Amino acid sequence: MLSILYEDDALLFINKPAGVVIQPSLKEDEPYLLKDVLQHAPGAFLMQRLDRGTTGVMFFSKLGAINAKLTRQFETKEIRKRYLALLRVALRFPWAPPAIGVDSGRVALLTAVLERKQGIVLSDQDIYVNVAGGATLEEPAADLAVAAALASSFRDVPLDPRTVILGEVGLAGEVRGVTQIEQRLGEAAQLGFVRCILPESNARRITGAPLELCGVGTLGAAMEALLT
């Protein structure tokens, strides 16, 4: 399911998660983003590309009449692309926290964002991350929950066990929307959760949620809601 950031009659902006290809790859059964876009908006034209491992905003034109104009604006730099990267100084190298059930590279990224945006210095700490029950977290929707667990352990402040946490965390500390949010909330309510910390972009579109919602736009806002 697409994570739509903005859409009107002419334009479509979506959030591309890391690990997803845009166009068909050599693997015949591998899903690709453009297929979902064309099912949602037939005839949409891709205006720029992002690599498989890159997450960010994808921009599509829905009207053929403006494709050429937008292409010229890209070529003349009237429309600019901005890429964000995050650098950190590590006291040990190579540095990869032991992680079971979640990608250690993703954990390293989240610790870097916590350090830069929240002042939680973890580069001199021994970090161990384990997903209970033998489960595996393979999607960025678990980013905010992992970050919250790290901050909770560092500050020695327990998280509310009745709260479920959803959201992708970007390098700038922003909390990005996730897909299938209604289904996730319904399943969380069935499991006994009573509150959900989730991206603002998702919270604004939900009515009649089965549990209390707290929308957050940044990692800082999420930590404040969870740890204060």
What attributes does this structure have?
2 domains, 17% strand, 228 residues, 3-stranded parallel sheet, Ribosomal Protein S5, domain 2, 4-stranded antiparallel sheet
Chart the SSEs and their pairings.
Blueprint: E1 4-7, E2 11-16, H1 33-40, E3 45-46, E4 56-61, H2 64-75, E5 99-100, H3 104-118, E6 129-130, H4 143-155, E7 163-165, E8 168-169, E9 175-176, H5 181-190, E10 195-199, H6 200-203, E11 212-216, H7 219-227
Parallel strand pairs: 5-6, 7-10, 10-11
Antiparallel strand pairs: 1-2, 2-4, 3-4, 8-9
Describe the structure.
This protein is α/β, with parallel strands linked by helices and 228 residues long. It has two domains: 4-75, Pseudouridine synthase (2-Layer Sandwich); 99-227, Ribosomal Protein S5, domain 2, CATH 3.30.230. 31% of the residues lie in helices and 17% in strands. The protein has helices spanning 33-40, 64-75, 104-118, 143-155, 181-190, 200-203, 219-227; strands spanning 4-7, 11-16, 45-46, 56-61, 99-100, 129-130, 163-165, 168-169, 175-176, 195-199, 212-216. The strands form four sheets. A four-stranded antiparallel beta sheet has the order 1-2-4-3. It has a three-stranded parallel beta sheet with strand order 7-10-11. Helix 3 (104-118) crosses helix 4 and helix 4 packs across helix 7 (219-227). The longest helix is centred in the middle third of the chain and has 15 residues, at 104-118. The chain is globular. The mean pLDDT is 86.
